[in-house]
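Hey, I'm writing a tutorial for new members on how sequence and structure tokens pair up, and I'd like a real worked example in the thread rather than a made-up one. If someone can provide the structure for the chain below, I'll link this post from the tutorial.
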Amino acid sequence: MTSHLLAAPLPEVTPALDLLTVPQVMARLQLGRSAVYDLLRTGQLASITLGRARRIPTHALTDFIRTRLEQKAA
């Protein structure tokens, strides 16, 4: 006998990789620290602040890259 609670999809657990640190973004974009902070300061790359820590959602990095590729293609 299967419980109806077991049949329902479980909420997706957000892995820690969904939020990137500035050094992780630096490595992925192969940019320096100042360049990444410039992208954050100008709003080109979205981020959140948790206490004193700055985190960049992976979807924000993906959106940033997609936007740059579309600009180049235009």
